[in-house]
Amino acid sequence: MSDDSGLWLLALGPAGATALYWALYRYYRNTDKSHAFERETAVEAQPVTGSDGKVDEIKGTRASRISGENGGAYRMRVQRTPTDDG
Amino acid sequence: MSDQKTPAPTAPVTGPGSPQDVPPVPGSLPIDPATRPEPIRDELLAPDPVAIDTAAAELKDGLNRCPKCGATEIRPKPGTDLLVCLYCRNEWDGARVEEAFGFGEGLDQLRGTVIASGARDIAADAASLMTFKCTACGAEVTVNTENAMTARCHWCRHVFGVNEQIANGAVPDAVLPFHIKKDDAVARIRQFVDKRRLFALKAFKEQFTPENVVGVYLPYMIVDGNASADVAGKGEIKTREYTRGTGNDKKTYYDADIYQVDRHVDFTVDDLPLESSTERGNLDTRVNTNNIINTILPFDTKNAVKWNASYLMGFTSEKRNQDVEHLRPRLEDQLLSIARAQVESSVRRYDRGVRWEQERLDVHGTRWVSMYLPVWLYSYHQPGRNGGLLHYIAVNGRTGETMGSVPVQQWKLLMAALTVGTVLEGIALWIVAASS
Question: Which residues cross the membrane (chain A) (predicted)?
Fold first, then answer.
């Protein structure tokens, strides 16, 4: 994309149009809104416990973030381990 | 075509376990729990779901009388939690359920499933129409619990309310009276729409009459919970950042350490609201705008008062059709989300982020209370494919929080986007031409 002569600038028009469309559409329709129960419910939590152990290292990756990052996506469910009741 | 299902084995006609067998004594178990392994014994001996009785015995006949003069013409006083007698102007207050039934206490001690009597399962054969026999004149008064909870005897003007926690799920444990008055709600809706007029659908703007807003009591389950959650995944910490190449070919590379991250958190939640009507609980924004009604949560549910149909005079209501077990998956999903939000601050050191791969939830105890919550609703039906789309603008009847969905005039919005896109593209072309 950013190899030479600023040809990527040509994407500015379509990108700007799409961004404006979505921004306005969301402002009117608010389809992305819902009750933020994670913040707005009274939760009393004990101190978080846990463990951290180094398992591997990576060299020379070009990605600036971990792949599949979901630390902030609270509502995205991952594999559920069953509860073993005894 | 030919694979026919094997029929289930039929129950024996006679002998042990058949309907001819003498039924066991109520409360007795066919097996001795003491001889069983611990998990089975615990399950056998676990108490049945506890029900907290929130029914008001004094209101059982459907008549809510003024404590001073005995009249039944009782209304809620707008903007307060008071009831007022229209005959002698006596005012009185409903008891707060929080204190009356101790709903706010002992969350960390919650075990099993505790259900208040208004949140019990709806009987399969329950009807929506309730008929009362007027004790004054003998006439029959019918209340349709789908959308109303009070009716007036057309002969002697007694007001009847559905106060008994009957099996049809219409009568909750508690009700939160409206605080935001209609004028206030109208002003808030008008303000919300005024900020979104430019690209709004023409027909919507023409027909916009916020005075048509209706006060609706919507059914919710208010859940307290005591749970533990575990999450496991990978986290990465950057150890080095460097660039290779020269000039335009410069590229950034990173080295990182990968960690296995496990977290555990014990927590309690207080008053988590869940929609207990299937229709309102469906938050699929492609087919409805119920997410708007969901957005105006939460309510100050601590102030809810004991159920009394007189609070609903002049308002419509929606009936609950979901039982505790239907809502449990949704609760677990929300508890897991809360747990994930709780552990987030403990993984800040992973500057390249974390990827949770597994999660686990142990729900130790839950307490379910059925409640009617006040919402001012303005709706607009936008015609279209598949029956169109119903747009809501909702105002929280307690806090005044307003959220809405305004239908857009697609061609106007597209024109605006294309115009801005064309201008940006023009600038881009000019820069490219000038630099080459």
Answer: 6-25
